[in-house]
User: Fold this.
Amino acid sequence: MAILVTGGAGFIGANFVRHWLASSDEVVVNLDKLTYAGNLESLAPLVADGRHRFVQGDICDAELVGSLLESYRPWAIVHFAAESHVDRSILGPGEFVRTNIEGTFTLLECARAYWSGLEADARSAFRFLHVSTDEVYGSLSADEPPFAESHRYEPNSPYSASKAASDHLARAWHQTYGLPVLTTNCSNNYGPFQFPEKLIPLVIVNALAGKPLPIYGDGCQVRDWLYVGDHCAAIRTVLTSGQIGETYNVGGWNEIANIDIVHTVCRLLDQVRPSPTGPYEQLIRFVADRPGHDRRYAIDARKIEQALGWRPAETFDSGIAKTVHWYLDHGAWVEHVQSGAYREWIARQYDAGSAP
Ligand code: NAD
Ligand code: DAU
Assistant:
């Protein structure tokens, strides 16, 4: 028995591979291109574990994907691989179109060819789980209800538009060809192994280094925060019990404004690693807003709870405390991901004192 995971060296993918293998002896074939966001160090304990087969490669490579499916005969594909950072998509949308749209198309076509050739039992057991985002639904005003699965698609960034396109492809491959597709649309994840270009790890890492904490616009944009371990549990639940062809929204029931996130992280750091120069909040800097910045995301996660019994286990207080401690305890991991490429990105994004 095997599953094929794409993007398993990224933030959520690596957490998922570790989560899956903590309670399963199935082989996990991990196909990841190792872009700047992929990091095998996040999978260090699995390097010598025969259940984890890492393959460096591109999801746009149909020949490679087809040969992996034929060799390992997985009963599921869990598709995380993507370009995932909104700010990068604004500066360079091309890779987002290529990986998120063409890559998903390639995977769907390879999966269809493989699945069509399976024996009846294996055919009915097969699943393609497409991991997507709440950003496809666009932006909510303060008084609108949270996103339900039936919310219209209104993506506003090149990233979210590319993810929306991939969701439509996944849906169409189910409707047209009968491919057993499941889709999850999740809110903002945080937790161990997140690349420090995203808000929470960026703030932790910058604060510890005495660097500015950049807040876009007025800092009142709201996101719904979900601890990554809870997301992994939700994906496992949907993969094993979800209804084929359905979409499940996954969220943490934690709507919090960016400025409050940053204050919370600063206060936690003040308690556990106080700075000799005073409270970390003095490092906060308001910078120019992200173009097209969505004001508010909120997830209505009742469907997955009512249909499949999943609910997040962590509160924001418990999850953020774990996360801050994880970054404090893993200085070497942080140091290693801060490669030349990372420093170049940070300089390009923030050195003029503003967002793009
Ligand atoms: P990430 O950027 O940390 O990791 C992406 C991984 O995909 C990396 O390991 C990278 O090397 C790999 N990859 C990129 N292009 C590839 C290609 N062409 N072929 C093979 N591998 C490739 O992303 P993440 O935050 O872990 O997100 C994973 C998935 O979850 C994405 O699909 C994202 O859209 C979705 N998602 C993320 C969040 C979040 O808050 N991070 C929330 C909802 C949904
Ligand atoms: O909602 C799910 C999405 O969450 C995922 O689909 C994306 O892959 C993931 O990157 C994340 O997107 P966001 O744009 O919401 O995450 P990010 O951490 O980049 O930003 C969170 C909020 O913080 C957002 O409103 C922008 C703001 N921000 C971000 C950075 C990096 C700042 O104010 N300053 C910053 O320096």
About this structure: The first strand starts at residue 2 and ends at 6. The domain at 2-188+226-253+297-314 is CATH 3.40.50.720 (Rossmann fold).
